[in-house]
Amino acid sequence: MAYHLICVQCDRTHDSSRYRLYCEGCNGLLDAQYDTPATVEARVDAGAAGTARYLPTLPINDPANLVTMGEGNTPIVPLPRIGHSLDVPGLSAKMEYFNPTGSFKDRGNVIQVSVLKDTGVTKVADATGGNAGHSFAAYCARAGIEFHGFANETTYDSRKLHAIAMHGAQVHNVGSGRAARNEGARQYAQDAGILHMNYGQNIYFIEGLKTMAYEIAQQMDPLPDHVIVPIGNGSIYQGLWKGFNEMVEDGRVARMPKLHGAQTEETQPVVAAFEGRAWTPGPGDATSKANGIGVVNPPRPSVLVQAARGSGGSFVTVSEGSLLRWQRLLAEMEGIIVEPTSAIVLGALENLKAKGAIQPGETALLPLTGFGLKEPIPGY
Predict the structure, then answer these.
(1) 136 and 220 in one domain?
(2) At which of 176, 196, 216 does a domain end?
(3) How far apart, in whole angstroms, are the C-alpha atoms of residue 366 and residue 35?
(4) Which candidate, 108, 104, 270, 118, places its Cα nearest to that of 199?
(5) Domain limits at 182?
(6) Model pTM above 0.85
(7) Mean pLDDT of 38-65
């Protein structure tokens, strides 16, 4: 599908002939725009005769370069016991940890890595160590792309880091903290003359996450009234916004759900931006068990705030005690084990219900983004 990239700051247009992270004019972030309308063709899924599945327009010029492992099409399951306890009877979960590497990150990486292959990139360097790094390493392995991952020396025993190494990535250990990982990757990429990745800032990753919105529209009729997701970089939130907005614009759906995002009390830059107040992070890296969302400088906070206002949604904080309590209750009441980063959406649901943002009789969907056995379970 032919597309071009446009700078969100200066409106400069760039072609899609090579992998681009930033505007060549002002170094701003980019967005994808398609040379044909965003409507898509329907197809009939095998095993579901007569059921049309709508696919979003995505930034891949040559379909032969699609690097896929069967990601997506994750099921939606009801959460009746938790729904009853919170007086949200229409509560469901979308099982995003059913993706190949155990997290929703595969949705972004199938597009991100496919574009790398599409544009002839063969070597990359990136900070790594979590679900994003594991997913990226897996898709790079499948695409034949050499991946140099930069991890903290203190995480050498991480299950996710072991998986990254098992995919053949060349893991470089550097200092401690996010800053050390990012600087190590940046410096190595500069010295080696290879691409320095940043999945939180590139638009390709976000475009891949649109697929979740399209699946929800296919799976739920009517659409849920509310969708709640964890917020770190905000890529999943922006992907949902873009996907639902495309479907509203072309008339495929009449409305979009209210989109809500959850952050920890420790790390809440997007909540602060939404509420119009200042927020200053504490020294060092975040200590919350919800380590996947300890991002103090998300790349697109104004876009996220605009999306929340446009959908009628919001952003809320959740205490450490609440997210850990809900991680345990989800396992005890519904048989589902997720990472603390994923469990935060249940604490957010509780808070939104208490403040009246979710009214009696309204439905809610919780994407459960990461498998709980990929990291140590708190308390054990």
Answers:
(1) no
(2) 196
(3) 33
(4) 108
(5) 105-196
(6) yes
(7) 60
